[in-house]
Amino acid sequence: MSPTTTTAATAASGTARWTVILCWITVLLEGYDLVVLGAIIPTLLKTEYLGFTAVDATTVATMSLVGVAVGAIGVGPLSDRFGRRIVLIGSVVIFSVFTLLVPLSTSVAMFAGLRFLAGLGLGACMPASLTMMSEALSADKRARASTLTMTGYHTGAVIISLLAVYFAGDWKVLFYVLGLIGLVVAAVQWVKLPESADFLARVEAKAEKLPMKALLRPTLLRTCVGVWVTSFMGLLLVYGLNTWLPQLMAAAGYPVPHAVAQLLILNAGGIVGLIVGGYVADRRGIKGTIIAWFGAGAVFLALLSVKTGSDVVLGITVFFTGVFVFSAQVLVYAYVTQVFPTELRGTALGSASGIGRIGSIVGPVITGALVAGGVGHPWGFYFFAAVGMLALLAVVTLPKGDKVLTA
Predict the structure, then answer these.
(1) Is the pLDDT of residue 271 over 90?
(2) Are residues 233 and 204 in the same domain?
(3) Cβ(161)–Cβ(174) under 8 Å?
(4) Which among 49, 173, 339, 399 is most buried, taking Cβ atoms within 10 Å?
(5) Do 165 and 243 share a domain, yes or no?
(6) Global pTM exceeds 0.70
(7) Which of 77-86, 138-147, 286-295 has the highest mean pLDDT?
(8) pLDDT confidence bin for 165, thresholds 50/70/90
(9) Phi/psi of residue 208, nearest 5 degrees
(10) Residue 2 domain-assigned?
């Protein structure tokens, strides 16, 4: 290999490394943010901050998720038109600025509005990061690119869980820390984050810039519908479980400390599943892996409806539920990066994430209704298992995923 070739390879490796690091940190911020509100709600209610009630807390949480959904859908066309880099950096800045303003709210309405605006930037961060990651690595590593990136989400969730213990009485610090770190990340991205080579190649070739409605073309529509349904079901499971698992366990008669511990076990399984799932999908085929993952997830969810007297058996069941359920949804994103052409990749990924976010709102609401009706256990797990099977059936309708679709 010539010195010139070696230098180019080293530069390319360094470029990919910065993309991986910065996209991973961006998704970590999302994991931190989407858990921080749940961590401070008890304090807001206890202190009656700004007159907060349980209804207000629900409204704020819903507005946050709506903002995330709108941001996710809107970011795709922007990144496909103006570039991955500038859109990602802009999203981080928007999210960070409005997050810094949240503690300065003078009313519940202002608090909710700022969370909605922060959500717009936050919702754009993940699909933009996944698109950049998938294009920074070779095509045979795209599943691993997506699953690796999403381990940042669970890391962020763990970090905020730990910080919340120390700053429960001074919750505003959690938002200031998040906003300031976000601005620092954006500054580093401005200096170090390269533009996607795939996007630059398309610009150089003066390829056609396609509108979002291009997803409705006959060659893409069936795939889009399948992905949207699967993403809706997948995020319904992720958010439904993360929100209600401790309560469902408590309803089954498990001691409260054990019930709460299962949430940590669930997310630990999620991290393992992301690592293993990406590797298996790249080696064995992504569509078959998603089908197997959702199928296994449905089985373990159904098993959770059976009360066991063994903590070990319960822990193993919850762990493998996390392994399959959490990574199955991320593999759907990886599928999108593989089958959609470069000129629509960001748009397709944003639409999948945005529509999936609707499921993230619906899941906790339905599960909460089951809990309120006194049938959270076992019907909550029956409901989740059925959702997993519906996701599996939606994946069956998708093309194999071994070639890029034609727009």
Answers:
(1) no
(2) no
(3) no
(4) 339
(5) no
(6) yes
(7) 286-295
(8) low
(9) -65, 135
(10) no
Cβ within 8 Å of residue 76, ≥6 positions away: 127, 212, 346, 347, 348, 349, 350, 351
Q: Residue 286: is its pLDDT beyond 90? A: no
- Fill in the amino acid letter for 363: G
Residue 1 domain-assigned (yes or no): no
- The domain that holds 224 is classified in CATH as 1.20.1250.20
Which residues, 6+ apart, have CB-to-CB distance to 122 below 8 Å? Answer: 29, 30, 33, 34, 67, 68, 71, 91, 95
- Quick one: 406 exposed, middle or buried, by C-beta within 10 A (0-12, 13-18, 19+)? exposed
Q: What is the C-alpha to C-alpha distance for residues 261 and 253, in angstroms, rounded to an integer?
A: 14
Q: Which of 339, 338, 318 lies closest to 381 in space, CA to CA?
A: 318
Cα-based torsion angle of the residue sequence 216, 220, 222, 223 in order, rounded to the nearest 10 degrees: -120
Query: Quick count: other Cβ atoms within 10 Å of Cβ 373?
Result: 9
Domain span at residue 317 reads 213-407
Task: From 147, 176, 163, select the one nearest 35 (Cα to Cα).
Answer: 163
Q: In b/e form, how buried is each residue of 330-363, taking b as 16+ CB within 10 angstroms?
A: bbbbbbbbbbbbbbbbbbbbbbbbbbbbbbbbbb
- At residue 205, the pLDDT reads 63
Helix (DSSP H) and strand (DSSP E) numbers for the chain: 13, 0
CA dihedral of residues 229, 230, 235, 237 (deg, nearest 10)? 110
Same domain for 39 and 145?
yes
Distance CA 149, CA 366 (A): 29
Amino acid at site 333: Y
250 shares a domain with 127? no
Whole-number Å distance between alpha carbons of 215 and 220:
6
Q: Are residues 291 and 142 in the same domain?
A: no
- Asked whether residue 176 is domain-assigned, the answer is yes
Residue type, 254: Y
Question: Based on the domain organization, do 23 and 55 belong to the same domain?
Answer: yes
Structure-model confidence comparison of residues 105 and 168, the more confident one: 105
4 touches 135 (CB < 8 A): no
